[in-house]
Amino acid sequence: MKMSYANVAAVCVVLVLLLGKAQVSMGVTCNALQLSPCASAITSSTPPSPLCCSKLKEQRPCLCNYVKDPNLQKLVNSPNARKVASICGSPFPNC
Fold first, then answer.
1. Largest CA distance in the chain
2. Exposed/middle/buried for 37, CB within 10 Å: 0-12, 13-18, 19+?
């Protein structure tokens, strides 16, 4: 009997850890200004910096919201923005 309680307890601990990790990964604060390191790469042929790629990956869950924003739409939905996302290894989501 003790063994089954230990197994149940272990499963509960694993579930708590996994759920906690999922909540952390979903806790992105959407802020388009975080993409400012990508401005030169998006507006010119300059390759994206490592900081740009890092911020782009961090803000990826927010990109569809940015595309819907009339103030950001032209910049975020441009061919260069998609090219930068591809170079950074963070494909643009299908919105």
1. 67
2. middle
SS3 25: helix
The domains found in the chain, sorted by start residue, are: 28-88 (1.10.110.10)
Report pLDDT digits (tens) over 3-30.
443 333 333 333 233 333 333 345 789 9
**Residue 73 corresponds to which tokens in the numbers above?**
């739409």
- Angle between helix 50-59 and 79-87 (nearest 10): 100
Which residues, other chains included, contact 62 with Cβ-Cβ below 8 Å and sequence gap of 6+?
28, 30, 31, 32
**What is the reported pTM?**
0.68
